[in-house]
Design goal:
The structure is a single chain. By secondary structure, the protein is an alpha/beta fold. Among the domains are: 183-247, no CATH class; 273-438, 2-Layer Sandwich (Nucleotidyltransferase, domain 5), CATH 3.30.420.10. It is 45% helix and 9% strand. It has helices at 3-12, 35-55, 64-75, 80-86, 91-100, 119-130, 135-142, 146-156, 165-175, 183-186, 188-199, 204-214, 225-233, 259-263, 278-282, 325-336, 358-365, 381-390, 405-416, 428-438; strands spanning 15-20, 25-30, 288-295, 302-308, 314-319, 346-349, 368-371. It has a five-stranded mixed beta sheet with strand order 5-4-3-6-7. Helix 7 crosses helix 8 and helix 16 packs parallel to helix 17. It is extended.
Length: 444
Amino acid sequence: MCACGESEVRGAARAETCFHFRTGITSVMPVAGRVRKQKLRFMRSSQHSLIGALSMLFSSRMVSEIVQPFWAALQRGEFITGAAESVGSYRVQGRRWIVAAGGVRPRRGRDLKGRYLSFSEREEIAVARAAGESVRCIARRLGRSPSTVSRELARNADRRGEYRATTAHAQAWERACRPKPAKLHVNGRLREIVQRDLERKYSPEQIAGRLRLAFPDDPEMRVSAETIYQSLYVTSRGALRRELAACLRTGRSLRKPGPRAAARNRAPDMINIAKRPQEADDRAVPGHWEGDLLIGKANRSAIATLVERTTGYALLVALPDGYKPEQVAPALAAKIQTLPDSLRRSLTWDQGPEMRDWKQIRVDAGIEVYFCDPHSPWQRGTNENTNGLLRQYFPKGTDLSTLTDADLDRVADELNDRPRKRLGFYKPSERIAELCGLRGGSAW
């Protein structure tokens, strides 16, 4: 027997995963023993799969055991990156889920009971079915009733009896949709009033309130503000035109989490910059610092930057493991501890969530921490200017997680060796050494 024939015989007892490039659907199906029969079967099954895929394509957002924990993490106050990583995904995919849902957590799949099959269980069924296992054997492995597996195969197998997990899950997802249509979709008169008032720049709350006054005895002509919001942002409802979202005060195309979820990421008990000593504003006394993060490629990495207000002297802090609060606080404290006591007077930061553990920095480093007003980068102008200079060394798109403290110290030394016009063309390194010397300190 030729080598080609041997490989065909060996392939007859094997199962492979086939991918339909037109539909994006993977399928587990047995490999035919003959190449010609395999091609014919594949062509026929591909035609059936394409017809079924045109009605409902599988998407990762249909996998509730992944997507719902992602949305739950967002509601707890996590950022997109952290929420996506918690379910084994990544930031870009998380952003896609949010855009597809209009920024509103999907209802479908939120509180699934144990009787619903998960996507992983459907994958197990597909693999076991392709291997020729019986229904009872599959059910015993999954801990399910044989009738559950039997109904699943009867409902979601194709005409040839082949079962694909992605196709089955997409069909089950579609059947699980809420049969009741939205009120704004059914009631044309109510929809026209809502759309007219939105175009007049009324808020959804104002529209809902006016409807209660105009139709006190007609509950069919009432709608809640939340229903209006969801009809604007959730395109699957098909009730209001998506472009009407631009008529809202914010004009956002995606809904953002409320203040309670956002507040969970803020630093607690922040001390405002207005309480910072006057000597820091005058730049007369050294030791008052401004800080911020310099973000790297795809928002996945960062370094911390510290700039002394009087001299413009810069320190750079490596954050190789990320820039979450539990990673930023010890790194900043360790860097500030290398400074003389006379240069540890205050640190001013923005209201970024990375400073959640600012009290730990104050205790460990012995420095007072103040926070700028929201969206006020000019209150840290020295630091913002320095970050602009650092982009010469670290352009946008640079992976900053690979930088060591030694690498950053070399960049900081070169930056501090530049003469500055506001210092009379003295260098920051010269000015800080001079000031430390005048006060009995040392240029560490």
